[in-house]
Design goal:
heteropentamer; A mainly alpha; B alpha/beta; C mainly alpha; D alpha/beta; E alpha/beta; A: mainly alpha; Fumarate Reductase Iron-sulfur Protein, Chain B, domain 2; 6 helices; globular; E: alpha/beta; Rossmann fold; 2 domains; four-stranded parallel sheet; 7% strand
Chain lengths: 106, 609, 238, 337, 356
C-alpha cells in the first residue's frame, strides 16, 4: 500500500439508519420518563459535577439515542440530586442515572 | 410444699420440653451464625463488651427496660405499653417466681428445667403452709392476672386497633396468627391447669376460687391432666413457631441490646448484626404510622416493618422496592421499640447492588477550590444543594461580615458534593473518593473551623470525615456563639415562626434546641403538633431513589399541614432541601435560619472598636 | 514583534469592518442547516453553526479563543452553507473574515492548522508572483503529491513532451495553455500586491511564523515542513 | 330591510362571522372563490388540540348559516367607495352595495416546491402537511407507502425563512406536526417518527401536553435542527440531512416518507383586493391592521373589517374569536353611524 | 424521481448567454491537470462552431485559489480581478468567460460585493490605477465555459459522431454530474438550473443521449477545500469527502461522471486511486474505477476526437471501458506516446485499481 502521508477519516455524521439504540430503549423500558426529556438543560445548569467535568444529563440522554459514549460524562455524576429538583418535566433524573449505571454494558 | 410425684416427671411435659429444646437450639444456632457472619474485629468487640462491667449493667438495665417493661412503648401509647409490659414482664415474673419456688421448696428438682413451669402440678400443698409459699402463690396469681389483662387488651387490639390510637398495624401472616393464638392460649390454659390443681398444690386469689367454682360441677381430677397437657402443648406450639414469627423478636432483642451496646454497626444488610435487627423487629407496626410516605394510605407496605418481613422471606423484588423508595428520614428508627435501623438497613441493601459503571472522579481538578479555600480562618461550606437556595449562603455571608469573621466561602462558585447523596444511594466507595478530595482541600486550607449550613453535609462532615485539627460546626451553634460573644445582636421581630426540624439535623445530628433558641431571640416561635424527634420529613429527601415528584408532593403537603397546626405566620427551617421543597407548596413564607438571623441581626463591630 | 502591538481594541468591531463579514453575518438562529451539509463537519470536530454563534455573542474573549484555535481552519470554503441559511448568512464568509483577522494578528501561529498558513502562503503567492498562476508545474512536486498517481509521475517526468502532446504552449510566448506570462504582467501583479497589502500580508505571516518557530525551537525549514505534513489526531472525532 | 354585509372569503372566519351577523339581524353575503365553503379547514381531517373533526365542525357551521347569501365560485371584480357604502361588483355580474365589508380571505399554504432542496414535486416520497391531511381523509396517495419504516416531519417549511421571503412563524405547524406525528404513530405503531424542529412553539392550551404525549406515549423523536438537504436513494426513499444541533453533529436518516410543514403565507388575491380599495399591506405581505394589539379587526378604511388569517398567521380558535370580534365591531360601526 | 418537477425548476433558472464574442480567461488548475480540455474548448468554440473567442497572453490567475487559501487579502484578489477586467475592456469585449469555477465564483462574488458596497469598488479602481495605471468596465455578461457548452449543446449534438448510448444495448449511459461548489451555491440565480438541480451538465448529457442519475450526495463537495488539499496534512479531509460521494453513488452504478469544475475531475479521479490503495475498494465494474470527464472531454468524445488528443491518458482511472461502451475507436498503443508518436515511456500501472 502506498503511503500518501494522510488517510481516510471516519465520518462524524450520526446515521440514524444504523445507530444502535439498544441501551436507550432499555433505559426507556425501565425509566419511561427518559422519553419526555426536552433537552432544556436545567439538569446540566444545576449539576454539581458539571463545573468540574463534562457531565450533562441532557447530553447523556441524547447521546444514548445517538449511540455515543456516555461513560465519561456519567462517571462524573455525584448523585447530588439537584437535577431532580430542577427538572421541569419532573423526571426522577437521579434514579435514571442509577439505572444507567446498572444497565450500562458498553 | 412437697413433691407429689416421686419421679418428678409426667409425659405431658414432653411437648414443652420439645418446644423448649427446639427454640433454644434454634437460638443458639442463630447466635453462632450471627457471630460467624460478623467481621473478626466486631466479634472481638462484642465478646470484650460482655466482660465490661459498665456495659453489663447497661445491658441488663436496657433488657429490663426495653424487653420487659417496654418503657418506650409506654411513652408512646400507655395502653399499648401496658399490654406489652403486662405480658412480657408478667410472664418473666411467673418464670422467675417459678424458679424461686423450685429453689425454695424442691431444690433437688432445680435441674429439671420444666419444673418451674409446671410447678403446681408436681407439688402438693404441705401441711406447713408458709408465708413464703402463700406470698409466692399470691404473686403467681397476681402476675397471671396481669398477663391475662394484657391478653384481653391484645384481643381487643386485634379486632379494633383504633382503640389503641393506632391507625394501622402490620397484617400478620398465617404462622404469626398461629403463634398469636398459641400465645393467647398459654395463659388461660395455665390458669385452668393451675385452677384444676389448686386443691392439691394450693393457690391464691385466682386459682383457689376458680378451683372451687370448677369443683361445683366438674370432676377436677379428671380435667386436671388434659389442661396441663393443653398448657404444655400451647407452649410447645408457641415455641415451635416462634423462630418463624415475629415473636422471634423476644430472644433476638435480648441479643440485639448487648450487641448494640458493644458498638457493632451494620456492615452488610443480609448478615450479622443486620440479620439480628431483622429478627428483632416485633412487627408492631409503629413505624407504619410514623412513616411520612404513608400519607393518604400510600406506600403502606414500604415501611420498615415490611422491609424486615420481606428480608426474612427473601423476596428480592420487594426488598429492592422498599429499600429504594424510603426517604431515609429516620423516623421509623426513632419510634422503633427495638431500634431497628430501617434507614441503615436500606442503605446497606442499596450497597449490595451491582452496577456496571462506577463513578470516577480522578479527572476532577480541585486546584481552583484549593486556591479559593486558602484565605480565611473560617471555612464556610454551603453545600451543593444550597446553590438552588442562594439566600442561605448570602445570609450566612452577611452575618459573618457583620460579626467581622475572617472567613472564606469555599464553594461559592460550586464545590464538590460532600458525598452523602452517594453514601445514601449505597455508593460508599465513590463517596469516599469525594470525601478525600474535600478533606484535602479543607486540611490544606489552613483554616481551623469548618462552618456548615447544610445539615446533610454537616452529618457527613461530623460522622464520616477525618478532619484532625478542624472544628466542624453547624451554623446554628456558630451563630449562637456569635450572639453570646456579642459579635452580633438579635432583635425580635413580631413574626411568629414554626421551626421544622430537618431530618438530617434533628434525628440525624441531634440538634433541636440551638435553632429554636436563635429563632426565639429573633422572633416568636410556635411548635407544630409533631416536632423534634417526631418531625415529619419534607418529602424532598435525597434518601429516596424512586419516589416520583407527584408522590413527594403529597408528603410535602402533609408535612406542611403538620407545620400549619402551629398557626405560625411563617415556617423556619435549616436545610436547603427542606427550604426548596416547602417553598414549592407552602401557603406562607418559608425561611432558612440564616435568613431570619440575618434579617434580625445587627453588627456590634463599630461599638467594639 | 508583539501580538499586543497591533491588537485592536475590540475584535468584534474589527470583524465588522470586513466586507466578507458584512455580507456573511446577519443574525443566526442556530438551526444547523450549515453544519448539516458541511464537508468539514463531516470529518473534523467542527460545527460552523457554533462559530457563527460564538461571533454572535460579541464576546471578545471567545472570539480571541476562536482566532487562536484550529477550529476556524477546518473549513474548505466550498460555500455550501451559503445556499442553505434561512437568515441569509454565509458562515463560510464569516470564517474567511476570521481567518483574515487571525492572520493579521498573528493568532494563526497558535494552532496546528493555523500554522499551515506559512507553507500555503509560500506556495500560493510564490506561484502567483513567479509565474502568474496559482498552481504551476514547476512547484507541483510529485513527492509532495503522491496521490496524483503513477500517471502523474510519468507526466511530470516527461513534462514537456506530455504537455506538448496535450496542445499546451508550456512556457511559450503568446496565448495558450501554461504559456509564460510576460514579465510586465508579473510586474503588475507585484505592484498590485504592494498596493493592496498582499506583500505586507506575506511579511506578517512570515514574521509571526518565524517567531513561533523560534518559540518551538525549530528552524524555519523544519517548521514549515511540519506545518505542511503533520496532522495530529485531535482534529477528528474518533 | 336588513343591512347587507359583504364577507369576502368563505373559510372558517367568514362562516363564523356570517353566523354571528345573522344573529344580530344583518344580511351577510359570503363571496367564495371555491365551489365549497370552509377554506383550508375543509381540507383538514382533524384539528388540534382536541382532535375535533373538521368536517363535523364545518357541517355544524354550515347548518347555522343557511340563511346567509353565499356566492360560490365567485370573485370580486372590483370594489369602490360609494358615499358611506361600498359597491362590490362580482365576476358573475352581481352588484352589492354594503355599508360594511368584512375581509376574511385567509392565507395561502406556502408552495413547498420553492424549497427546492427538500425536493417536493421532485422526489417520490416527499409530501406536505396538507397532502397528509388529505390522505387522512381519503387514504389515497401513491406517495405514501403501505408500511413506512420511518417518517419525518420538517417544521418551518417556508416559515421563518428570509430566503423564502417569509420571516414570520406560521404558529400552527409545530402543533400540527406533533398532531400528525401522533396520527401516523396511531396508524403505523411500528414506524419511527422524527420531527426536525428549530424551536417548538407550543404556545396554546394543551399544546405542550400534545408534545409530552408524543414523546412519552408514542416515542416520537424530536431532533433540533433544520433540515438542510434531501436526496433520493436508489430505492426511492429519501435521505434527509440536518444538524443534530444538540449534539453539534451532522445527522442523516433515510425515510420512507417526508412531510413538509408548509407554513402560512399571504393570499395574493387579498393583495389584489387591497389595491382595489387602498388597504394597507404589512411588510410580511398580510393585510395591515390598525394595530396588532387592540384593533386587529380594523382596517385603515372605515367600513372595512378584517377577520382571520388575512392579517397574519392564526389558529382556528383565534380565527373564530376574531370573526366574532369583527362582527361586534361592524355592529358598533353601523349602529353608531 | 419526478422529472416534471425538476424540469419546472430548471425552467425557473435560465440565464441569458450571448451566442458570440467572448473574452476568454484560463484556469490555473485546468491548465495543469486537464490542459487538453481547454484546448478542446477553444477548438469547439472557434473551429467547430466558428465563434469569436479572444484570449490575451497578459491575463493571469484571478488569485481565487490563493484567496480561498487565505493567503492574500480581499483587496488584492479584487484588484487582480479588476486587472483582468481591464484587459477585457482594453480588448473591446464585454462578455467574460472564465474556464475555472473558482474564478467564476470569485467574479460573481466580487461583482456582487461591489454592487452592494460601491465604495469598495471605487477603492479597487484606485488600487488598480495606482498599481497598473489601468481602468476597467465590468463585464456585461459573465458566464462559465460550461455555460457556453451548455448553450451550444444541441449544435454540438448535431455534429456528434457518437452518442452517450451503450452501443450493444442501445440504452442511454448513466451519467452522474458533479457541479463545482462555487458555480451556483453562492448565487443560485447565476447558474443554469439553480443551485439545487443545476441543469448545465444535465442538459449536455440529455442532449448527447445519456441519462442523468441523481444520488443522495450529488450536491456534496468533492473535498478540494483549497487549504484542505494544498497542505498535505489536510488531504484526509479531501479524500474522505470524495469517498462519501462514491459510497453514495455506488448503488446507482454510473458509467461516468461529468464535471464542470477544474479541481473536481482531478480529485474524483485521483481519490478513486487513493481509496483503492488504502481500502482496496473500486467503484466501477471488474476492478475499474468510474471514469470522470470534463464537459469538454465529453464533448470531444461525442464529436469523435481521438481520446489521446483529449488528454484522457492523463486520467488515473481508465477511460477505455467507457469508450468501448460507446463504441469509440482508439489505438491503445498510442495512449502514452508523445508528439509525433515519440516514445516517452509508459506510466507504471497501479495494482489496486485496474488501469490500461
Amino acid at each position: 500500500m502506498m503511503d500518501f502521508g494522510f488517510s481516510l477519516s471516519k465520518s462524524s455524521t450520526i446515521n440514524l439508519d444504523t445507530v444502535d439504540t439498544t441501551l436507550y430503549k432499555k433505559l426507556c423500558d425501565m425509566e419511561p420518563d427518559a422519553r419526555i426529556c426536552m433537552s432544556c438543560g436545567s439538569c446540566s445548569a444545576s449539576c454539581t459535577a458539571a463545573s468540574f467535568s463534562g457531565m450533562s444529563l441532557r447530553k447523556v440522554i441524547l447521546a444514548l439515542q445517538r449511540d455515543q459514549d456516555v461513560r465519561p460524562m456519567l462517571s462524573n455524576c455525584m448523585l447530588s440530586g439537584k437535577c431532580t429538583m430542577v427538572c421541569p418535566r419532573a423526571i426522577n433524573t437521579r434514579h435514571l442515572i442509577l439505572t444507567l449505571y446498572r444497565i450500562y454494558d458498553r | 410444699m412437697i413433691d407429689r410425684i416421686p419421679s418428678g416427671f409426667h409425659p405431658f411435659v414432653l411437648p414443652f420440653l420439645f418446644g423448649m429444646i427446639f427454640v433454644l437450639s434454634y437460638c443458639l444456632f442463630g447466635i453462632v451464625r450471627i457471630l460467624w457472619q460478623l467481621p473478626k474485629q466486631d466479634v472481638r468487640k462484642f465478646l470484650l463488651s460482655l466482660i465490661n462491667p459498665k456495659i453489663i449493667v447497661k445491658n441488663v438495665w436496657e433488657i429490663f427496660r426495653d424487653c420487659l417493661i417496654h418503657v418506650k412503648l409506654w411513652k408512646r401509647n400507655k395502653l399499648l405499653g401496658y399490654m406489652h409490659s403486662s405480658i412480657a414482664f408478667g410472664w418473666f415474673m411467673i418464670i422467675l417466681l417459678g424458679h424461686i419456688e423450685v429453689f425454695l421448696f424442691v431444690p433437688n428438682r432445680i435441674h429439671m428445667f420444666y419444673y418451674p413451669i409446671f410447678f403446681n402440678y408436681f407439688v402438693a400443698e404441705g401441711p406447713d403452709m408458709t408465708i413464703q409459699g402463700s406470698l409466692l402463690m399470691f404473686l403467681m396469681d397476681f402476675f397471671l392476672l396481669i398477663i391475662l389483662s394484657g391478653i384481653v387488651l391484645a384481643m381487643i387490639k386485634r379486632v379494633h386497633s383504633r382503640f389503641f390510637g393506632m391507625r394501622r398495624t402490620a397484617r400478620p401472616s398465617l404462622l404469626n396468627q398461629i403463634g398469636l393464638y398459641a400465645l393467647w392460649a398459654i395463659f388461660p390454659l395455665r390458669l385452668l391447669a393451675e385452677s384444676f390443681t389448686a386443691h392439691i398444690s394450693g393457690g391464691s386469689f385466682l386459682t383457689i376460687p376458680a378451683n372451687w367454682i370448677f369443683r361445683q360441677f366438674l370432676g377436677n381430677d379428671l380435667n386436671m391432666l388434659p389442661t396441663w397437657w393443653a398448657y404444655s402443648i400451647a407452649l410447645c406450639v408457641f415455641m415451635c413457631v416462634l423462630p418463624f414469627t415475629r415473636y422471634m423478636h423476644i430472644p433476638a432483642e435480648m441479643m440485639l441490646i448487648p450487641m448494640r451496646n458493644a458498638g457493632i454497626k451494620i456492615r452488610d444488610s443480609r448478615k450479622g448484626f443486620a440479620k439480628l435487627q431483622v429478627y428483632s423487629c416485633p412487627n408492631c407496626g409503629v413505624c407504619i404510622d410514623a412513616c411520612p410516605m404513608s400519607v393518604n394510605r400510600g406506600n403502606l407496605k414500604d415501611c420498615t416493618v415490611y422491609l424486615t418481613r420481606q428480608m426474612r422471606r427473601g423476596n428480592e423484588k420487594r426488598i429492592e422496592e422498599i429499600s429504594d423508595k424510603c426517604l431515609l428520614c429516620g423516623k421509623c428508627h426513632t419510634v422503633c421499640q427495638v431500634q431497628v435501623e430501617g434507614p441503615q438497613l436500606r442503605i446497606m441493601e442499596r450497597s449490595r447492588r451491582h452496577y456496571n459503571l462506577s463513578p470516577d472522579y480522578s479527572n476532577i481538578d480541585t486546584q481552583p477550590l484549593t486556591e479559593t479555600a486558602s484565605h480565611g480562618k473560617v471555612l464556610y461550606f454551603s453545600g451543593c444543594m444550597s446553590q438552588l437556595t442562594p439566600a442561605i449562603g448570602q445570609s450566612v455571608e452577611s452575618i459573618l461580615k457583620k460579626a467581622g469573621v475572617d472567613y472564606v466561602w469555599m464553594d461559592r462558585d460550586g464545590g464538590l458534593c460532600c458525598g452523602r447523596p452517594l453514601l445514601t444511594a449505597g455508593r460508599a466507595e465513590a463517596a469516599k473518593e469525594l470525601m478525600h478530595k474535600n478533606e484535602e482541600i479543607i486540611l490544606g486550607s489552613g483554616a481551623d473551623t469548618l462552618l456548615v449550613s447544610c445539615p446533610i453535609c454537616y452529618k457527613m462532615f461530623t460522622e464520616e470525615y477525618h478532619l484532625p485539627g478542624i472544628r466542624v460546626v453547624h451554623y446554628s451553634h456558630y451563630f449562637s456563639e456569635l450572639v453570646q460573644q456579642d459579635k452580633i445582636r438579635l432583635e425580635k421581630s413580631d413574626l411568629c415562626y414554626v421551626f421544622h426540624d430537618p431530618c438530617e439535623l434533628g434525628r440525624g445530628c441531634g440538634i433541636y434546641d440551638e435553632p429554636r433558641k436563635l429563632i426565639g431571640k429573633s422572633a416568636s416561635i410556635a411548635e407544630a403538633e409533631k416536632n423534634r424527634e417526631e418531625s415529619i420529613c419534607c418529602g424532598g429527601s435525597l434518601g429516596s431513589l424512586t419516589l416520583s415528584f407527584a408522590q413527594r408532593e403529597e408528603m410535602t403537603r402533609a408535612a406542611l399541614d403538620n407545620l400549619y397546626t402551629s398557626r405560625a405566620d411563617a415556617i423556619a427551617t435549616a436545610c436547603p432541601l427542606c427550604l426548596a421543597t416547602f417553598a414549592r407548596y407552602s401557603d406562607r413564607p418559608v425561611r432558612d435560619l440564616a435568613e431570619i438571623i440575618d434579617a434580625q441581626s445587627s453588627s456590634t463591630q463599630k461599638e467594639n472598636q | 514583534m508583539n501580538n499586543k502591538d497591533n491588537k485592536p481594541k475590540n475584535l468584534y468591531e474589527e470583524l465588522c469592518k470586513d466586507y466578507r463579514f458584512k455580507e456573511g453575518f446577519h443574525t443566526c438562529i442556530n438551526c444547523g442547516t450549515c453544519t448539516a451539509i458541511c464537508p468539514a463537519a463531516e470529518f473534523y470536530k467542527y460545527d460552523p453553526r457554533k462559530i457563527v454563534s460564538i461571533v454572535q455573542t460579541r464576546d471578545d474573549q471567545q472570539i480571541e479563543e476562536l482566532l487562536k484555535s484550529d477550529t476556524i481552519w477546518y473549513c474548505g470554503e466550498c460555500m455550501s452553507c451559503v445556499t442553505r441559511c434561512p437568515r441569509k448568512n454565509g458562515p463560510g464568509l464569516v470564517i474567511i473574515a476570521l481567518r483574515d483577522l487571525s492572520a493579521r494578528l498573528g493568532y494563526f501561529t497558535e494552532s496546528e492548522k493555523g500554522r499551515q498558513l506559512l507553507p500555503l502562503t509560500h506556495i500560493m503567492t510564490g506561484n502567483i508572483l513567479n509565474y502568474g498562476y496559482c498552481v504551476h508545474p514547476k512547484s507541483f512536486k510529485w513527492e509532495d503529491h503522491k496521490e496524483s498517481g503513477p500517471v502523474w509521475k510519468w507526466h511530470t517526468e516527461h513534462l514537456e513532451q506530455s504537455l506538448a502532446r496535450q496542445g499546451a504552449n508550456y512556457m511559450g510566448d503568446g496565448p495558450g495553455i501554461l504559456r509564460k506570462i510576460p514579465q510586465e504582467s508579473l510586474d503588475e501583479l507585484k505592484a498590485i500586491f504592494d498596493v493592496t497589502g498582499g506583500t505586507e500580508r506575506i511579511r506578517i505571516v512570515e514574521e509571526y511564523s518565524k517567531a513561533k518557530a523560534e518559540e518551538m525551537g525549530m528552524d524555519m525549514e523544519e517548521y514549515e515542513r511540519q506545518a505542511f505534513e503533520y496532522c495530529s489526531d485531535k482534529h477528528f472525532n474518533h | 330591510m336588513k343591512e347587507n354585509i359583504v364577507i369576502i372569503g368563505g373559510g372558517i372566519a367568514g362562516m363564523e362571522a356570517a353566523k354571528q351577523l345573522l344573529v344580530l339581524g344583518y344580511n351577510p353575503i359570503i363571496i367564495e372563490q371555491q365551489d365549497h365553503l370552509g377554506g383550508h379547514v375543509s381540507q383538514w381531517h382533524k384539528l388540534f388540540p382536541d382532535m375535533t373533526s373538521s368536517h363535523e365542525l364545518l357541517d355544524g357551521l354550515s347548518n347555522q348559516i343557511k340563511d346567509a347569501n353565499v356566492f360560490l365560485e365567485t370573485k370580486v371584480n372590483s370594489i369602490n367607495a360609494l358615499g358611506d357604502s361600498y359597491n362590490v361588483i362580482l365576476n358573475n355580474g352581481v352588484n352589492i352595495v354594503a355599508k360594511a365589508v368584512l375581509v376574511a380571505s385567509g392565507f395561502h399554504l406556502f408552495d413547498a416546491a420553492k424549497k427546492e432542496e427538500y425536493g417536493y414535486g421532485v422526489y417520490d416520497r416527499v409530501i406536505t402537511n396538507a397532502d397528509l391531511e388529505a390522505w387522512f381523509n381519503k387514504r389515497a396517495d401513491a406517495r405514501i407507502p403501505e408500511h413506512p419504516k420511518a417518517v419525518g416531519f420538517v417544521h418551518c417549511v417556508g416559515s421563518r425563512d428570509l430566503k423564502a421571503g417569509n420571516s414570520q412563524c406560521s404558529k400552527v405547524c409545530c402543533t400540527t406536526a406533533i398532531k400528525q406525528a401522533i396520527e401516523i404513530k396511531e396508524i403505523f405503531p411500528e414506524t419511527e417518527v422524527y420531527c426536525f424542529y428549530m424551536d417548538l412553539r407550543l404556545f396554546g392550551k394543551k399544546y405542550e401536553d400534545f408534545y409530552i404525549n408524543a414523546q412519552r406515549d408514542f416515542g416520537v423523536h424530536f431532533i433540533r435542527g433544520r433540515v438542510s438537504e434531501v436526496g433520493e436513494t436508489i430505492d426511492n426513499r429519501v435521505q434527509v440531512k440536518a444538524e443534530d444541533t444538540l449534539t453539534g453533529k451532522p445527522l442523516k436518516v433515510t425515510l420512507d416518507l417526508l412531510v413538509l410543514m408548509s407554513g402560512m403565507v399571504c393570499n395574493p388575491r387579498t393583495n389584489e383586493l387591497a389595491e382595489m380599495i387602498g388597504l394597507n399591506i404589512d411588510d410580511d405581505g398580510f393585510l395591515k391592521s390598525k394595530d396588532n394589539v387592540y384593533t386587529i379587526m380594523e382596517s385603515n378604511r372605515p367600513g372595512i373589517f378584517y377577520a382571520g388569517a388575512c392579517t397574519g398567521t392564526k389558529t382556528v380558535p383565534e380565527t373564530v374569536a376574531e370573526a366574532r370580534a369583527a362582527v361586534l365591531s361592524i355592529h358598533h360601526y353601523l349602529t353608531q353611524a | 424521481m419526478i422529472t416534471e418537477g425538476k424540469q419546472k425548476i430548471w425552467s425557473d433558472y435560465q440565464k441569458e448567454i450571448p451566442d458570440d464574442h467572448w473574452y476568454y480567461v484560463r484556469s490555473c488548475i485546468r491548465q495543469n491537470f486537464f490542459p487538453a480540455s481547454e484546448k478542446m474548448f477553444t477548438e469547439i468554440t472557434q473551429k467547430v462552431l466558428g465563434k469569436d473567442l479572444y484570449e490575451t497572453p497578459h491575463h493571469t490567475t484571478c488569485g481565487g485559489i490563493a484567496y480561498h487559501c487565505d493567503t492574500i487579502p480581499q483587496e488584492t484578489v479584487m484588484t487582480i480581478v479588476a486587472r483582468q477586467f481591464a484587459l477585457m475592456t482594453e480588448a473591446g469585449y464585454e462578455n467574460y468567460v472564465p474556464s475555472c469555477i473558482t474564478s467564476f465564483g470569485n467574479y460573481c462574488e466580487i461583482l456582487e460585493t461591489w454592487h452592494e458596497f460601491p465604495e469598495l469598488e471605487a477603492k479597487i479602481r484606485e488600487n488598480l490605477w495606482k498599481a497598473c495605471k489601468r481602468e476597467f468596465k465590468k463585464p456585461k455578461y459573465l458566464a462559465h465555459t460550461s455555460d457556453l457548452i451548455y448553450h451550444w449543446r444541441n449544435a454540438i449534438a448535431a455534429k456528434a459522431k457518437h452518442h452517450l448510448v451503450n452501443k450493444e444495448t442501445g440504452e442511454p449511459l448513466k451519467i452522474v454530474e458533479h457541479i463545482g461548489c462555487h458555480y451556483a451555491k453562492m448565487f443560485p440565480s447565476k447558474g443554469v438550473g439553480g443551485a439545487e438541480y443545476p441543469y448545465v451538465l444535465a442538459g449536455m448529457v440529455e442532449s448527447w443521449g445519456g441519462q442523468v442519475v441523481d444520488y443522495p450526495e450529488r450536491r456534496h463537495c468533492c473535498g478540494y477545500g483549497f487549504r484542505q488539499y494544498h497542505v498535505k496534512a489536510n488531504r484526509g479531509y479531501s479524500v474522505s469527502n470524495t469517498h462519501k460521494k462514491f459510497e453514495s453513488m455506488e448503488p446507482f452504478h454510473p458509467d461516468a461522471i461529468i464535471t464542470n469544475c477544474p479541481g473536481c475531475p482531478y480529485f474524483l479521479d485521483r481519490w478513486q486511486y487513493v481509496i483503492a490503495e488504502q481500502t482496496g475498494k473500486t467503484y466501477g465494474k471488474d476492478g475499474f474505477g468510474i471514469p470522470v470527464f470534463t464537459y469538454e472531454e465529453m464533448a470531444g468524445i461525442i464529436l469523435g476526437y481521438d481520446p489521446w488528443d483529449l488528454g484522457l491518458q492523463l486520467h488515473q482511472v481508465a477511460v477505455e471501458p467507457f469508450l468501448d461502451k460507446i463504441g469509440v475507436e482508439y489505438d491503445p498503443k498510442a495512449k502514452y506516446l508523445g508528439m509525433n508518436k515519440e516514445d516517452i515511456m509508459r506510466p507504471e500501472l497501479p495494482k489496486s485499481i485496474k488501469c490500461c
